[in-house]
Amino acid sequence: MYRLALFLTKSRTLSEDIMQDTFIQVFQVYPQYDSTRPIQPWIYKITLNTVRKTLRKRHWTTLWNRQHKNESLEEIS
To answer: Rounded to two decimals, what is the model's pTM?
Structure first.
């Protein structure tokens, strides 16, 4: 799972954060897990969704910060 996160993010620190978020999510939704199915693909899917959510959030945060910075520079001019 860590390798998947590392491959997709190219960041060790971000991958570690994603792993923590993934395990929290796994423990929160574990009561909904169907024990007749394999657990590994289920956890990988949660990992992938956590990576996507994190990258999406970082993308929008970066865009927001850029826009805010540009607005601040316009006010100074």
So the answer is: 0.72
